[in-house]
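Revision sheet: structure tokens.
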Amino acid sequence: MRHARRPRTQGMVLVAVLWIVAAISLVVVGLVHSVRQEARVLSTQRALAVAGGVGDAAVQLALRQLAVLDAPPTRMLTWPLTYRQTPVAVRVMPLNGLIDLNAAGAPLLTALYEVAGGLPRPEAQSLAARTLAWRAGSASARAERFEAVEDLLRVPGIGLDLHARLAPLVAADNGGSSGGVNALAAPLEVLEVLAGGRPGIAARIAAARDAGDAGIDTTDLPAAFLESGAVQRYRIDARVPLPDGGWLHVAHHVHLGTEPQARLPWRTFHTEQWVAPAQAPVS
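Predicted:
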């Protein structure tokens, strides 16, 4: 009888061993997956750090080119540069190509909220009125000034999603705006706002500007939205390629001009970075 039970006991031991092996296998698979994930994260962080350094260097190269120009540019420029064998597209944009939150009037703010923000016109008009009211203050609140683009979130009715759509198109201080926008310095998205959401007009002006054409026709844009002239503040945006096919944008907001005790003929007052993912192939 004692010998008859031995195969059953051995079978139970075998099952227990198999369970242990299976459990260990799951642990090993989990560890391998975790290590691979950490390796990918570290690789991505390293790629971003390297691209950030390349972008900062490209911005400095562009600033040196700006410093030797006979006159400050009054339109957007794009310079192809190379740093450590990495091609970088650098865009130099006078800040009056953006919509000045401290100077824009109700019609331009309405167009901004409607075209770029995607709000129905009545809501856009209401939000523009609240923005002006926030700037002007009231009997119970002092007048406010946008010190940074993030201050838009302090205006009632502007949340994170709307702010994210508006932030690339606006500035808190573009260096002396009278409330209008320099169309020759404006990115395509701002031109679409000025054109009332008509992308064909915006694309035509941007293409002529980027081709270096003189005497560009902007009569399709409301004259009240426009201004021209030179400013001392610029956004220098370096677009650096990433290994996954995306792009890292490194942007410096700078004030050109010699200041007391300054070592360089420019001063950087704001920097930012963001990643643009690789575009999906068109089928």
